[in-house]
Every structure is written in C-alpha cells, then in structure tokens.
Amino acid sequence: MRKRITLFLALGAPALFLLLTFGCSEKNTWPAPSLVLESVPTTLAPRIDGSATDREWYSAPELLIALSDEQASGGGSVYLRMKSVYTPYPDTVYFMLEWADSTDDVLPDRLMYVGPQWRNMDCNDDQALISPANWTKRVEENGKEDRFCILFEITPVSDEYGSFAARGCQVACHNGMSVPPRGASTGRFDAWYWMRARTDPVLRCDDMYMDSTGFHGDDGIGSWSVNLRGNGFVPKFIARGTNAGLSPAKFVFDPGLFGRALTPCDTVNPASLLNWNDPRDPAADYVPGYLVREPTGSRNDVKAVGDWDDGKWQVEMRRALNTDDVLNDVAFNVDKTYIFTIALMNGSGVYHSGSVPLTLRFRR
Asked: Which residues contact 273 (CB under 8 A, 6 or more apart)?
C-alpha cells in the first residue's frame, strides 16, 4: 500500500488522470505531443503477428498521434500510438499501430437471405436459393468495417491552397487531389490501406497509389472483390472445405473463378451448419459481402497483421525499404525524411478521423 501511495504522489493527479482516461476511452481531444516518428535500427526483426510483444518494439520511441475531424470528416477525436523499427539486412521497415476501439467491425455489406426455409426437395427445380428476390443488404451495414490508410508522399503534392507537408489530409482527400479541378496537377502518394474484412484475413495492406484522379491499385491483383453473382444481392461464392483456415461466418476465400460458386443445391449455410432459415437458429442467415484472396504483384508488398483484443487494435506491418515499383511505392532512404498522414475509420466507409502532416525519420 505504501508503494502505491508513493507512486500516486510522484505522478501527480493530472498525470494519473491522463493515464486512466486513455485506457478507458477511444475518444479524446488531446494535442499530439510530437510530429516525428523515429524508426530505430534493429538486428532482429519483430514477428508480424499483431501482438506487438517482441522486445524490438520496446526499444522504439512511441509517437502519440491525435486524429481529429479537423483533418477528416465525422470520425471524432481518436488517439493512436505508433512505433517503427528497421533492419538494414534485409532492408525492411516495420510499423506498429495501436488504438482503442470498443468493437471489432468485420462484417460490412452482408448479403442477407430472407427467403423461405430451405428444404432439400429437388434443388435442380427449386431456384429459391439463387433468386434475387430472396437476398438483400442492410443500409446501416454499408462499409461498416474498421480500417486505416497511411499516405506517404512519393513526389511533392500541393494544391492552390498549400502543400501536403503543410496541410496534410486537406490536400490529399478533402479539398485537393481527389476533387478536380481544384486538385493538384502533379504529385503522388504511396497509399497503404488496411481493411479488417478485406485485407487483414490474408495478412496484408492493400498497396495502392494516389494521384490527381484518386486511388488506384498498384500493379497486380488486389486481395478482395465484391461477392455478387449478378443482379441484386445474391452471393457469388460461399465458403467451402477449409476456406483457407478462415471463419466461414466472417470470410469467403476465393481460390479462383469457378471453385466455390453458390448453387441451388447448397442446402446448408456453412456459417451455421444448418439449413437456410432453419428455425433452430433464430439469427438471420447471411453470406459475407466480399471475397478475399492472396494479392499478387506490387499490391502484395505490404504485410500486415491485426489483432483486436480487450477493446483495442494492434496492427503490425512490414515492407522492404525499397521495392521494385519505383513509380508507385515510396523508396525509403535511411538518410532522408518522409511526410505522411494517417486516416482512421471506426466501422465506417465514410466517417473518419485524420492526422496533421507527420514526419518519418530514420535513426542511424
């Protein structure tokens, strides 16, 4: 008891209040105490598993980032922790992000089966399971997915009101590049887009780029596609077999164009292992709205693993300091600094919080 009292007096009531507030809330209005993320060298690489418990992270200084509506739209004020390390051999940079979030939003745009209870009479004649009249989506679930996007400046970006280095997200998204004709005519971003339902299942960020016409995927195939077979909201695929080890209630893995198509004879919902609309399962029957797969080419450059536990997210990432995609990927040189921003979306595809311009610096 004496040690606890001594600790309280040493910290002081204001400092202790800040510590307790961060631990309990995902919303705040604190200013960022620093704008520089320092990446420190290490001989051992941290494991990319979402746990962020490797000792390499303890040697890295922490950047506390205040995200707000002033830099974005409707996401509120959020506090985010970020660290970085790099290994000269092999030349790889690592990032760790952590933020408070009360829910794991992993099922955006679910495809809901609202047809009659399925009975396996003659599936070749009964087309109820693939009828557009028997499938729908919930408007409130549109884009309901946890995600973030990091923009690194590849070449200097500016609009008529200033530079990305001075104005950050206001140039990149809200009043700048994506809103012609006010957008910048030159400049390019490397965009790392992490999405809980669409990139995290295959342990990646979507490696993209952004120019005056908007977001574009790097060369290669991305990690996700919409799970629709045609008109309406009928699923194209459902989970089968091992589903690449992924939960059939959350993800549908797509190994190709023909392997797992939904047919009228799919009498069992793979998520519940019961017939569709079986009265023994009162919950609504659904199929995930997106397909996931291993990305290829330059879109496969950024490995990322997220872990949600006890009301917070931890995401670890890694990428080669210099990739082969010289046009669309920022080439990190440990003797230089790099401007970047972060946008965070809490279960939304529209509302998000953004950072002011930040600087990545490598310690030698």
From this structure: none
